[in-house]
Amino acid sequence: MRFALFSLTVAASAFGALSPAAVAASFGVQATGAWSRPVPAGLPTGAVYVTLANLGHEPDRLIGAETPVAARMTLHRTTMVNGMMSMAPVPGGLEIAPGGVVKIEPGGYHFMLEGLKGALKPGARFSAILTFAHAGRVRIEVQVRPGPTGGGGMQMR
Ligand SMILES: [Cu+2]
How many Å apart are CA 109 and CA 103, to the nearest integer? Predict the structure, then answer.
């Protein structure tokens, strides 16, 4: 898996030296499989999931995220406390070891979308920017689709 991702990075770098995505990838973080559950109009919150791979030789750190579809996009961690699911922002960002893969997926981490500006409809796509301490800004395309558990993996209240 790591080798496949690495060759993708090399191809991207060779393809367009001026593309921001290619420049970011050459510093070693690859973001794949970004998705979000559908959210009907009028609801303020949603969640984004993605797999991050650090292909570089140094640790990197996810330090921020933004998207045009919501006022705020913040990394949260879901934990079980006394049998109740709760979530909280992750202080200090998320470190990814060299060669490491972090799956931001239901039940663990998620990017919390707050202040959604409209519905997230099944089949739609939207963009987001993830910011890393070393890799810089990495643009992702988020696909809106139902989650593997039918929407029950993250409770907002
Ligand atoms: Cu959250």
Answer: 8
